[in-house]
Design a protein that fits this description.
12 strands, binds biotin, single chain, alpha+beta, 7-stranded mixed beta sheet
């Protein structure tokens, strides 16, 4: 694993997308700040100095067979590593966020490129974590929703330590041929038994999130008692 560090970059995911050919499998691009950090569904990801932003490139064909599990595996890796740094409750909000108590601590954006012959050329796992409160605070639209791991700025060596530990754990989980990580994902689900707003293709619906099933789908129930299993996709959830 090689970690390449930038002080500032537009987006670590973008950088890997543009330069994937020159890097080996499991290269990590990390940055102190992003000027155009991206989230899921075309949203931006606020990325000041007070967070950690990194992306991992996966090119190995065997690992790419698990592309649809990259987000789940990464969420479990982030959750498991960060737990040691706080007494506050961490949980995993299906499908790609880590929460600290009732606030978002981390977002994960997995992207890939499929060639014309349907081969996957790469997978990129992008992870952004709020470490401490930004100097000028969080922007208005996320200030009530964003949470941080620490109350104040930690020693600077911690950033690198956390990035390395998370990436190593992802690597290990990708190679482990057991599915224990699914149990961790399910047992630490934030959404279980919460009323949520489901936004699918612009349509909003109030439903109840029940649990995460063994295939990591979110099982929901609507007002009429009809259950449905949700699988990733262009779905956004508000609580
Ligand atoms: C989300 O919350 O929707 C996902 C956020 C993912 C943010 C990370 S930060 C590192 C990498 N670079 C980006 O531009 N995005 C991801």
């Amino acid at each position: 694993m090689k970690i390449i560090k930038f002080d500032e970059i537009d987006s670590t995911n973008n950088y890997l997308k543009e330069n994937f050919q020159q890097f080996d499998d499991f290269t990590v691009i990390a940055a102190d700040r992003q000027t155009r950090g991206r989230g899921r569904l075309g949203k931006s990801f606020f990325s000041p100095e007070s967070g950690i932003y990194f992306s991992l490139l996966i090119k190995d064909k065997e690992k790419l067979n698990y592309l649809d599990r990259f987000t789940i595996i990464s969420a479990v890796a982030v959750f498991s590593e960060l737990k040691a740094y706080t007494d506050k409750k961490l949980s995993i909000k299906w499908v790609n966020d880590i929460y600290i108590e009732n606030k978002k601590l981390c977002g994960i954006l997995t992207e890939s490129r499929i060639q014309k012959d349907n081969e996957i050329s790469y997978g990129i796992i992008g992870i952004g974590i709020n470490l401490y409160n930004p100097e000028d605070g969080f922007p208005e639209d996320i200030k009530d929703k964003a949470g941080c791991l620490f109350d104040k700025k930690p020693d600077s060596f911690l950033k690198e330590k956390i990035v390395k530990a998370i990436c190593e754990r992802i690597y290990m989980l990708l190679f482990k041929y057991n599915e224990e990580y699914i149990d961790i994902y399910r047992e630490n689900s934030y959404l279980d038994n919460k009323n949520i707003k489901l936004i699918e293709n612009g349509n909003e619906q109030d439903v109840r999130a029940l649990y995460i099933d063994k295939d990591c789908r979110l099982i929901i129930e609507n007002e009429k008692g009809v259950k449905k299993a949700l699988y990733f996709g262009d779905i956004s959830i508000e609580i």
